[in-house]
Amino acid sequence: MTSYDYDLFTIGAGSGGVRASRFAAQLGARVAVAEDRPLGGTCVNLGCIPKKLLSYAAHYHEHFEDAAGFGWTVPTPSFSWPALIANKDREIARLNGVYEKLFTDAGVTLLRGRAKVLDPHTVAIGDQQVSARHILVATGGRPTKPELPGIEHAITSDEAFHLAELPGRVVVYGGGYIAVEFASILAGFGAEVTLVYRGAQILREFDSDLGATLAPEMAKKGVAIRLTTRITGIVRGAAGLTVSLDDGTQLAADSVLAATGRTPNTAGLGLEAAGVALEQSGAVRVDADYRSNVASILAIGDVIDRVQLTPVALAEGMYVAELLFGTRRPPINYESVATAVFSHPNVGTVGLSEAQARARGAVQIFRSRFRALRHTLSGRDEQTMMKIVVDAATDRVLGVHMVGPDAGEIIQGFAVALQCGATKSQFDTTIGIHPTSAEEFVTMRTPVTFLPGPAS
Ligand code: NDP
């Protein structure tokens, strides 16, 4: 039998790569990981974690405003961007250390450098060559910018986390996760933010009530939203940036943030030379077991064309570790992946949108809009929206969607219910927790609409 240096060689120490490597080592495999950047990948360094810390920070703005209604007198607060960034960086450095310790404790060898696949069982890291029975590509993705004149003046989320100072006027380009999150965060710090989006409604890929509810709520918090509009050019002048739009108008800005999607990190990895087929997007093409067309090379996380979310990469990492060194797990159910968008207010969602559900059959829609109890005293005019999509034939709940404070925290529990196949009647017999916003999900009784499915 051929002997290899390692049973598993993982390229990339992000969420998926770390999880797969640790689990494989715990199952007895000899594992090495190559990484040339800080450990933890996008989520820890340039994504979920620093973004959530910034989001917490930005929320204080309205907490200070809301405090007066509850009897508090708050002296005029001031905000230091450099202090926040320094504190955030310290926490990220701590997490980088935690990840290193996870490897040490699990007996995983960490190789610092950029890896290149030489053949189906060989990887080079600098001058070193290593052989492995299996190679796992977990290199993630990176932000992309659209091609337009002056785009070199635009930053992406990568740079936004390390700006030396808070820009006063920001144009955010895009209408997806990163655009609405950063627009909210920067507006929370007092920046003048304009979100420019080419489509008719932000968060296009979600249930349409989410974007429709979120846009006016963001506007109330100071984000100017320009829909069905494209940026045609960016020019740098003495007074900052001038952003030209396709409706003929211009915006003055100190910073333009392109939040226009991410692309898989496969360039320069040697994959094609090793015979690995890629999708047109550059993603590694994999089968249901995350194997590429070269059986010994697998890929997980943002480098494949599935769902770009950390918990999904973690699940894929565990699946692959078990597949290679343990017992095969049940396949991941990509349909009921819950997710949150940390816009202000938050969005939480799981399951099918109304449109997706209607394409499959008749549905009942339950929807509630209300002002949360907190705002009776804060005076803030913020609407919470909750929606349940139900299969009219089986009573099964197909989708649960929310815009409002802590939507992600609330939706997580409902994701378990959907995973278990809960019906609307079971929602109805669940006793609510009073007074919460979440109880609304178990007290909505009257459907707002019954919609027949597609004509057959
Ligand atoms: P998204 O795919 O969510 O959004 C990209 C946006 O950019 C869309 O509105 C899209 O418009 C627009 N766009 C794309 N190409 C162009 C172009 N050439 N010109 C103008 N506009 C364009 O990507 P993000 O970058 O926001 O995020 C990437 C992924 O990262 C997300 O899909 C998500 O999986 C993950 N993520 C998750 C987060 C979370 O869990 N909270 C937070 C941040 C990111 P259109 O709709 O018309 O295609």
Question: What's the architecture of the largest domain in CATH terms?
Answer: 3-Layer(bba) Sandwich
- The rounded distance between the terminal residues' Cα atoms is 57 Å
Instruction: Identify low-pLDDT runs.
Output: none
Q: How many structural domains are formed by the residues? A: 3
Average pLDDT confidence is 97
Q: How would you sum up the major sheet?
A: 7 strands, mixed
- Number of DSSP helical runs: 12
- What ligand species are in this complex? NADPH dihydro-nicotinamide-adenine-dinucleotide phosphate
**Proportion of β residues?**
15-25%
* CATH class membership of the largest domain: Alpha Beta
What's the gist of this structure?
The chain has 456 residues and is of the alpha/beta class. The chain has helices spanning 15-26, 41-46, 48-67, 81-106, 157-160, 177-188, 208-220, 310-325, 354-358, 374-378, 407-419, 424-428; strands spanning 6-11, 31-35, 109-112, 115-119, 122-125, 128-137, 141-143, 169-173, 192-196, 224-226, 231-237, 240-245, 250-253, 255-258, 262-264, 297-299, 339-341, 347-351, 363-371, 383-391, 397-403, 449-451.
Task: Provide an overview of this structure.
The chain has three domains: 210 residues, FAD/NAD(P)-binding domain (3-Layer(bba) Sandwich); 110 residues, FAD/NAD(P)-binding domain; 102 residues, Enolase-like, domain 1 (2-Layer Sandwich). It is α/β, with parallel strands linked by helices. 30% of the residues lie in helices and 25% in strands. Helix 3 packs across helix 6. It is globular and about 70 Å long. The strands form five sheets. Strands 1, 2, 3, 4, 5, 6 and 16 form a seven-stranded mixed β-sheet that branches. It has a six-stranded antiparallel β-sheet with strand order 17-18-21-20-19-22, with helices on both faces. The protein starts with 5 loop residues before the first strand and ends in a 5-residue tail after the last strand. The structure holds NADPH dihydro-nicotinamide-adenine-dinucleotide phosphate. The site of NADPH dihydro-nicotinamide-adenine-dinucleotide phosphate (NDP) has 22 residues, from helix 6 and strand 17. NADPH dihydro-nicotinamide-adenine-dinucleotide phosphate (NDP) binds next to helix 6 and strand 17.
